[in-house]
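Summary for the steering committee. The consortium agreed at its last meeting that each partner would contribute one worked example illustrating the joint modelling workflow. Our contribution is presented below. We chose a case with several input lines so that the handling of multiple components could be demonstrated. No manual editing was applied between input and output; the record is shown as generated.
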Amino acid sequence: MPKLLSLNGEFESPATGPLAAGRHRPPWPAENGDSMVRQGVTAAAPELVDAGNWTPECGKGVRLTVDDEVDERFLAANRIAIEFPAFNDGRGLSLAVLLRTRHGYAGDIVATGDVHEDMLHYLRRCGFTSFLVPDERSLDTALSTLAPYSDYYQASVIEPQPAFRRIGRGA
Amino acid sequence: MYRYDSFDQKFIDERVAHYRDQTRRYLAGELSEEQFLQLRLRNGLYIQRLAPMLRVAIPYGTLSSRQLRMLAHIARHYDRGYGHLSTRQNIQFNWPELEEVPDILADLAKVQMHAIQTSGNCIRNVTTDEFAGVAADEEIDARPYCELIRQWSTSHPEFDWLPRKFKIAVTGAPVDRAAINVHDIGIRAYPAPGRRSGTDGEDLFDIKVGGGLGRTPVIGALIREGLPARHLLTYLEAIMRVYNRYGRRDNKYKARIKILVRAMTPEGFKARVDEEWSHLENSASTLTPAEIARMRAHFRPPDYPPREGAAETLAADRLRDPSFDQWVRLNVSAHKQPGYAIVTLSCKPTGVPPGDVDDRQMEAVAGWAEAYGFGEVRISHQQNFVLPDVAADALHDLWRSARALGLGTANRNLATDIICCPGGDYCSLANAKSIPVAEAIQQHLEDQDYLHDLGEIDINISGCMNACGHHHVGHIGILGVDKKGREYYQISLGGHSGDDASLGKIVGPSVSRDEVIAVIQDILDTYLAHRIEDESFLHCVRRLGLEPFKERIYAKAA
Ligand code: SF4
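What follows is the complete predicted structure of the assembly.
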């Protein structure tokens, strides 16, 4: 059974979800971040419907492929899944960035398909808030590689300011 | 040059720890070969024909004496005592142990170096003019912008998993020594009209995309003129997003951005990028004047003590010693600062694989950079060392020391200054060997007393069509091909990588290894027979076209 690792718990309403606050920063890495994340681990795979069949009334998440374009209709879904055909296919990263920054989507974005633990830190910074970790991958490793760096140079979905605007850099 | 602050240092220290953990998980069987391949490539580690190969980043080809000494230490301690200067201003070690790579990275981190993104389908080490900051003809030192691009592209969340590798080059001089026409993105930086860079007004950029060598060589298309410097990173972001989303991933030979630009047409691609950029313009990634100024300060020129009488001393030295005079003519270039010179230390003496340097040579170059300059060294894409700040009256001393260590050959840009990839001796992708071909040509030309009379001729050799030896832009290009399991070579003429860049045209059927020397001789003989006064080889080829060369080469066979 794949495990759903979720950084933000529930995503009932896009309008009130934790990402709606404007600063798209999930609770990781908080002081007790590890336990917060662990609370978000569930064995239940999210209920998803392929983009072609999805309707706002179905009450389920919508599943996009990495080369789908964003359709404004999907923004009403409480969860959008992006399916990775291969863990090193970077298209899903750009799609998530567009959902967050261009379309202001504030619900859960979950990575499905070939999700590899070493991609989680990229996924997280591109606005993914959940990861469906395949059966054969270790959840412990996934958790330990979630944030291998304490800070980064560039802006990202979860840190909209690049380092040069946030901190005094040495000359 | 750029010096790390605590932010940079922390990042690369964490990178070492991260990679160490990935290596540990691989060795423990938690990562498959394919999974680890993707991770190690983002840290410059290939598995080659004979052993792993580690490519260490030398950002835009600039390094300090201290850093070069560390490279010498790595060559001695973890390798067989030498390294190979690559055509992208990096250094490669051919014999490290996979298990020891994390330790090598930790040693590199001690001197503010790394191997991040030196391979894999990501944004690679940004390159520039090896004379940046000191060239007499330069308008802008491109290195502050290179460093801004380096920091922005390091572990970028969105652009580290591209369809294919991605190379950016920047130049700030009217003469293009950075080959910006044959890069995925080529940037020409210049001051706003009537203004001086760094004092008043904002620098501007012309941006080309979709140039490249490899199987389908293309000259880049200009998609933006006069972009103000503050928009550099957001504009790059727009280009990268369009490429990341729409570049082909189904066929690795069609995955470079040049194929996408061609499919969309340059106008169509530009329209896409401009649309994307309209959402990003003036976003938080827009550079601040303070950030640009901070970066410039890192590259402020040193205080050059005046050298009274340096020009006279040099003139007297040259008069006294004709071999020294010849070396100065070929290997010494004009410096911004009167009394100083830029020295190219040739790593192409006959009998040594082009670009190979051993630990003693690295130590010596580091020492000369301190004794004769300000402790700075450059690597050129022609695979030579450059000392950027040598006092003119010290050139003779330096030359004598360099000669004693095999670094004083007077052949910069001559036919023996061959650009050559590692080829079949090391590289598992090769169709044919390249190093022995380079050596045979050098040997042959060395024996001819007209080598200097031939003037500037770029001979570039690649062992396969990945074109690491840039054969398409060699005045004479040599490409290794496989003919029924035998090594053959396809010869092209008329390529050039500078401002008026052009791609070489194939002269005819490929030839066996034994025939290469005779073909080169035919080409040179044809040139000598047809040149008008001191017409250059390239000019002569462009004027004559391929016919006379073809006739001469293939006449015997017919
Ligand atoms: S051109 Fe081919 S043979 Fe030469 S280094 Fe590149 S991949 Fe290897």
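Chain B has four domains: 6-59+85-110, 127-298, 310-404, 419-555. The domain at 127-298 of chain B is CATH 3.30.413.10 (Sulfite Reductase Hemoprotein; domain 1).
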